[in-house]
Amino acid sequence: MLPHALSEAQSIANAFLDCSLALDHLDRRELDDGARALVVQLEWFMNTAGVEDPDGRGTWLVMAERFSDEEKLELARVIDELAHWFGRA
């Protein structure tokens, strides 16, 4: 999740799009318990329920702008661990 030229939140929103595309085609039966738990965490971060986007900028962007530094670090950890798991698999 390299910094986007526009903002860190835009980088997160872009990463969510990439993750969403990957998760759509993922057969979760092929994951071990640890990887499944990471996917659940990632989906929790990506959940936009209750997020309002009156300006039409994108709910992931609006949500990402509200993340605390701790949430951003945890999200990066989850994505890194999933990438590592898929790299080994």
Structure report:
This protein has 89 residues and is an all-alpha fold. It has one domain. The chain contains 4 helices and no strands. The longest helix is centred in the last third of the chain and has 20 residues. It is globular. The chain starts with 7 loop residues before the first helix and ends with a helix.
Topology summary:
Layout: H1 8-24, H2 33-46, H3 59-66, H4 69-88
As a whole number of angstroms, the C-alpha radius of gyration is: 13 Å
Structural class determined from secondary elements: mainly alpha
Helix content: 55-70%
- Please tell me what the overall shape is: globular
**Number of β-strand runs:** 0
End-to-end distance: 21 Å
List the helices and strands in order: HHHH
**Uncertain residue segments:** none
Total count of domains: 1
The percentage of residues in β strands lies in under 5%
Average pLDDT over all residues:
92
Largest sheet: none
With helices defined by DSSP (H or I, 4 residues minimum), what is the helix count? 4
